[in-house]
Amino acid sequence: MTRLLFLVILFFATLAEAAPLWMDFDSSGGTRVTVKGRVKSPILDTAVRELALHYDGDVTIDLKSDKSLGRDGFAISETPGGITITASKPQGALYGAYRLLRNVKAGYPAASGRSVPAYGLRILNHWDNLDGTVERGYAGKSLWKWEELPATVSPRYEEYARACASVGINAAVLNNVNASSRILSAEYLEKVAALADVMRPYGIAVCLSVNFASPVQLDSLPTADPLDPAVARWWKRKADEIYRLVPDFGGFLVKANSEGQPGPMDYGRTHAEGANMLARALKPHGGIVMWRAFVYSPLDEDRAKQAYLEFQPLDGAFDPNVIVQIKNGPIDFQPREPYSPLFGAMPSTPQMVEFQITQEYLGHANHLAYLAPMWTEFYDYVAPESIVASSGVANIGDSECLTGNPMAQANWFAFGELSWDPHATPAEIADEWLRLSVYRRDAAPDAAVHDALMSMMLDSREAVVDYMMPMGLHHIFAFGHHYGPEPWCDVPGARADWLPRYYHRADSAGLGFDRSPSGSDAVGQYPEPLRSRLSSIETCPEEFLLWFHHVPWDYTMPSGMTMWEQLCASYQRGVDKVAGFQRVWDMAEPVVIPGLYADVRGRLMTQMRDAEWWRDACLLYFSQYSGRPIPLDIPRPVHTLDDMRAVNLGITNFESPAPQLLNKAR
Ligand code: GCW
Predict the structure, then answer these.
(1) Catalytic residue list
(2) Is ligand 1 within 6 A of the CB of residue 248?
(3) Is residue 477 within 6 Å of ligand 1 at its C-beta?
(4) Counting atoms of ligand 1 from 1, which one is nearest the CA of 176?
(5) Would you give the DSSP letter of residue 258?
(6) Residue 353 is inside which H or E element, if any?
(7) What is the CB neighbour count within 10 angstroms for residue 345?
(8) For residue 390, how far is its CA from the centre of ligand 1 (angstroms)?
(9) Atom of ligand 1 nearest to the CA of 333
């Protein structure tokens, strides 16, 4: 008995220790959980257990049919007997339970009323490989220990599921979109089933990325042509096998005919023909296909136009259980992009957005970049109601805090929040996250410190834009790892559209990509009146100017500065902002959890050095074309262009994070 108790305590202690910061709830002093309308459900059991362990007071879970709450919605109200969580389904009860616990911990009113998610599918995409590496992962190795599964099931899987559920995430694609067909082998499906068993009580449906050539690669079929009946049969049998093991399996995510991945076009078929064939295999089981629109090839056509050109004509050709998954911007998860014009351009096709939570292009796990402002900016242009689901490329790995940089947990949290309510504001989300995650229990911050941290969070993504690629510049990263600046980068034999020059087009006349009607006419893919607004250099929003126009160096900006002067000022503003973040963080030291404080202080130092590196690299490089000096009110560079050019930022090394390289150079 004592031994059992010890094991139980140990189990929960482990959970508490490595859980994300916002999940560190107090243990209950005395809770009575009453369930009205109880049904047999592991999800309901989770809700009851969480409340029993962490809520202090009486709670009633009232399960009753209420169509307006749907499967996931809930209401939290104050009743004479304590708090009541009303829900239609166990899922709603679970989300209500977590909301209640969060309300209490954040110091918000417990009874926060009704809440119904905007999207039924709120999904994380893991780019995790079967060998334990994570593509664009900066938080250690994969959380999934494929080699030990299914026999050994790490307790961290449950922490993960619990954290996801606490912010409403209800599905996960376990493996990289650059998918190994092995994931569909009998051996791996057993492992997938073991993970699904852990996720089920938290309401998380497991999904897989599949390689379109799996029938050829796994079972030596002569073709993967989607119109070949033997291929369709293969997928049908595979789907049946999956659902035998994982009855609540969610579906497939597919990257086809993109960056060298196989796909239906290898056989002269369309994306729709490929997607529909898979959709029909999953349909009897209720599964879906998420078909990615991230496609581009080294054509003469502007890369920003290609996804639209390939997908828009297929509107209406997809089966109802296919959702086209589109990155928020038309290029690739840049610090700032205009929205992808495919959104809204396929009215007869369900679409979902793909955000990137992992900071491939925003300083990896080193830089502080709270991404909610980037995602709500997308929703400023794309009506949340016009899409059917929200997905995000996870920033999760096996690092102690799960996200490499503990502050990056805020992005996992914010992704969940915005998938639930895309109208939530970045400030609301940051306020709650800071209160839940950052402060010491024995030292509540005063308003000034809290406000300063709020401003730091809210400004952090804009700071990254400023010191990396202001005014609509994009993709001027070092080749491969995408960490540092290399606007000069040239890799013999590399595709033109993988090189910075393709995007910045600096010459003696000016800077930027002319996508106006007299250039590539990418603006033509946007609806009016936005199209006209973007088309003219005078009306194009400043933050997209160099995205859509090749602007003369001495063009007068609304500020009165020339384009060149404003470019210089923007880079410097980014550097100054990071210096400000360092000060705020030090000011907050007395109220921040000590380990968190020290960790983030170190990262901010790296970020500061990187910001200066970016400023110097870009301004010294572009000044060769502008023919103008860096204005005297901007601090002098602390690096020389030759020194920076001499550092080969990992051209041959795709996987290694750049900080070591940069640090070595300094
Ligand atoms: O952002 C780019 C990345 C690739 C990634 C690809 C994609 C998974 O550099 O690493 O591959 O996009 O989204 O498919």
Answers:
(1) 259, 332, 360
(2) no
(3) no
(4) 8
(5) S
(6) strand 351-356
(7) 17
(8) 18
(9) 1
Kindly tell me if the per-residue pLDDT of 303 is higher than 60: yes
Which helix (DSSP H) or strand (DSSP E) does residue 252 occupy?
A: strand 251-254
pLDDT band at 642 (very low <50, low <70, confident <90, very high): very high
Task: Please give the structure tokens belonging to residue 75.
Answer: 């209401």
Q: pLDDT band at 650, cuts 50/70/90?
A: low
Nearest one of 501, 497, 510 to 549, comparing CA atoms? 510
Which atom of ligand 1 is least distant from the CA of 135?
Answer: 10
Residue 249 φ then ψ, to 5°: -55, 140
> Is the distance from CB of 315 to CB of 375 less than 8 angstroms?
no
Distance CA 199, CA 251 (A): 15
For residue 179, is it left (φ>0), alpha (ψ between -120 and 50) or beta? Answer: beta
Whether the per-residue pLDDT at 6 is higher than 80: the answer is no
∠277-303-309 over CA atoms, to 5°?
45
Backbone angles phi, psi at 355, to 5 degrees: -95, 165
What does the pLDDT look like over 323-360, one tens digit per residue? Answer: 999 999 999 999 999 999 999 999 999 999 999 999 99
Class of domain 465-499+560-665: alpha beta
Chain-centroid distance of CA 586 in Å reads 28
Nearest to 350 by CA among 119, 165, 505: 119
Q: How far is ligand 1, taken at its centre, from the CA of residue 393, in Å?
A: 10
Q: Where are the alpha helices (DSSP H) in 87-153?
A: 90-106
455-458: long-range contacts (C-beta < 8 A, 24 or more apart)? 455/584, 456/368, 456/580, 456/581, 456/584, 456/585, 457/368, 457/370, 457/410, 457/426, 457/430, 458/370, 458/373, 458/426, 458/427, 458/430
Which residue's structure tokens are 């056509």? 301
In the chain, where are the structural domains located?
A: 32-115, 121-437, 465-499+560-665
Which value, in Å, is the radius of gyration of the alpha carbons in the chain? 25
Q: Tell me the C-alpha distance between 99 and 116, whole Å.
A: 12
Four-way CATH pick for 32-115: 3.40.50.300, 3.20.20.80, 3.40.190.10, 3.30.379.10: 3.30.379.10
| One-letter identity of residue 36 | K
Q: What CATH number was assigned to the domain covering residues 121-437? A: 3.20.20.80
What tokens does 428 get?
Answer: 């609301």
Structure tokens at 510: 């000016």
Element (H, E) at 342: none
**Residue where the block lists tokens 């960490």:** 483
Ligand 1 center to 258 CA (angstroms): 9
Identical fold for domains 32-115 and 465-499+560-665, yes or no, is: no
Nearest to 279 by CA among 256, 258, 261, 254: 254
Quote the CA–CA distance of 637 and 616 in Å, as a whole number: 5
Q: Which amino acid is at 172?
A: A
Mean pLDDT of the chain: 94
Q: CB-based contacts of 96: which residues, under 8 Å, 6+ apart?
A: 47, 61, 74, 75, 76, 85, 86, 87, 115
Helix axes 229-245, 271-282, angle to 10 degrees: 40
Is residue 519 classed as helix, strand or coil in its secondary structure? coil
Checking DSSP bridges between strand 57-63 and strand 82-87, what pairing results, if any? parallel
Structure tokens at 159: 């922490």
Both tokens of 590, joined, read 């007395």
Where does residue 356 rank: exposed (0-12), middle (13-18), buried (19+ CB within 10 A)?
buried
Handedness of CA 93, 98, 99, 104 (dihedral sign): positive
Measured in Å, residue 247 CA sits from the centre of ligand 1 at 30
Report the distance separating Cα 266 and Cα 287, nearest Å. Answer: 25
Q: Are 374 and 336 in contact (CB under 8 A)?
A: yes
Please classify residue 294 by burial: count the beta carbons closer than 10 Å to its beta carbon, then call 0-12 exposed, 13-18 middle and 19+ buried: buried
